[in-house]
Design goal:
This protein has one domain. It is mostly helical. The relative contact order is 0.13. The chain contains eleven helices and no strands. The protein starts with 36 loop residues before the first helix and ends with a helix.
């Protein structure tokens, strides 16, 4: 002790600085911060610009990490796309149009809303496999040049299947439910495929989105599962599992044949899962 009663500097001990603690009293290694309002809007805008025909402006070029994170909102945009088609179906039904007409307008409306993005990507992949089957040579006993591509035929087939499924649903309420869930879950599985598979270099979509963070993949799945549960309740597990199996089959093609993912693979996955979900809803109605 000094004359004035103070403790010498050499004997003073600094008070320990409190540290944040996580579960079990240990310092937390992972921190979760919600995105700022500005970043959230940028992420949503990126998802909207890719999945729809809208082109929302940015103050500055989005950072790559925000582009990757934007995929977590795909299920919300997918649900909005499905709702848009369902509203068209409902309006046409209120005008006492036949079911086949209302379903056709609903599908055409969604094609317009999305600028037929995934259908085009689906056709691109089918064309690629068609050329492989033909060994990139003229086919047929006359060796004639093909005038109708496999992709064109595949789009016609998938559109007919969608129209038939929607027209066969019991009422407008079920159309709303089916299209919302099909749009949401099919786009959530796109996020899973992008996280699981390697981005194929040189593809515009793969180079743009790369691979979303694991937390954002979980968020996308959680959003789609929550939407499905709110809409279908006890049938949620059946619908999600069936759609997931269809998506897995497409993703395995990407893993084995393409050695990664690109835009055509994601578009094909979305189309296959969407029609699978519509078919499952039709089966359990």
């Amino acid at each position: 002790m000094t004359e004035n009663g103070d403790t010498p500097e050499s004997q003073q001990k600094a008070a320990p600085t409190p540290r944040p603690r996580g579960l079990g009293g240990y310092q937390s290694a992972v921190t979760m911060r919600p995105p700022s309002a500005e970043n959230l809007w940028v992420e949503l805008s990126i998802a909207i610009n890719y999945l729809t025909r809208f082109n929302l402006p940015f103050k500055e070029e989005p950072r790559p990490r925000l582009i990757r994170k934007s995929m977590s909102w795909f299920p919300l945009i997918g649900a909005a796309i499905g709702m848009f088609g369902a509203m068209i179906d409902w309006i046409m039904t209120e005008m006492h149009m036949p079911g086949i007409i209302t379903a056709t307008f609903a599908v055409v409306g969604m094609l317009w809303f999305t600028r037929a993005l995934h259908e085009e990507e689906f056709a691109s992949l089918i064309n690629q496999y068609g050329r492989t089957m033909d060994n990139e040579k003229k086919i047929g006993w006359l060796r004639e040049e093909r005038s109708v591509r496999y992709g064109t035929l595949s789009i016609i087939l998938i559109i007919i299947m969608k129209i038939g499924a929607i027209a066969s649903l019991a009422d407008s309420t079920l159309v709303f439910q089916a299209l919302i869930v099909a749009g949401s879950w099919s786009r959530a599985l796109m996020v899973v495929a992008a996280a699981w598979l390697r981005p194929i270099e040189g593809d515009p979509v793969a180079d743009h989105f790369l691979q979303p963070p694991g937390v954002r993949v979980a968020l996308a799945l959680g959003l789609a599962a929550a939407i499905t549960f709110v809409v279908f309740g006890e049938d949620t597990a059946t619908i999600l599992m069936t759609g997931a199996l269809a998506g897995l089959m497409v993703a395995i093609i990407g893993a084995n044949q393409l050695r990664g993912y690109n835009g055509p693979l994601l578009g094909t996955l979305q189309q296959v899962v969407e029609i699978t979900v519509l078919g499952m809803v039709l089966a359990i109605q």
